[in-house]
Amino acid sequence: MCTKLGIEHRFTPVCYLRYNGQVEPSLWDESSAPYRSFPPSIRKLGYEEGTNDERMKENFDFVDELRDRTLVRMQEQKQVMSRFYNRKVKNRQFGIWDLLLRLLQANQPKNRNKLNPKWEGPYRVRMVVGLGTYECKELSGKPIDHTWHEVYLKKYYV
Description:
The chain is an alpha+beta fold. The chain has a domain at about 100-155: SH3 type barrels (Roll). The chain is about 35% helix and about 20% strand. The chain contains 6 helices and 5 strands; from the N terminus they run ααααααβββββ. It has helices at about 1-5, 25-30, 35, 40-45, 50-60, 65-85, and strands spanning about 100-105, 120-130, 135-140, 145-150, 155. It has a 5-stranded antiparallel beta sheet, with no helix packed on it. Strand 2 (about 120-130) and strand 3 (about 135-140) form a beta hairpin. The radius of gyration is 36 Å and the shape is flat.
């Protein structure tokens, strides 16, 4: 039916106009100047052969100053980001002999359900290992073999 009417049926998507014959050949011809010409950029208009080398030398004199300003600006941005991040952080610092409760974690092999307590303890701080890391012992004095981070600890008030 299509061949009788002179219609050629092609199985290419509509988005590929070049390949299904819906684009004029002059658009894709390399010699079509109106489609390829753009106005010159500001950089090309401001370029002068003789003064370009002098301007480059002047810019090289300010490289160290520009690098220092950039470094200062990067440090300021880092401080702003750290202030933004740390504004809601609650610092928990425990001293030696403080009573603590430890959060029971999901990977511990105890029978866990929603009615079981979420905190275990109390324990005493035996030693501050590092920033926010503590070694604890039971109230009987028996030391615990590993350290805990302050995220998993909270103060126990008697």
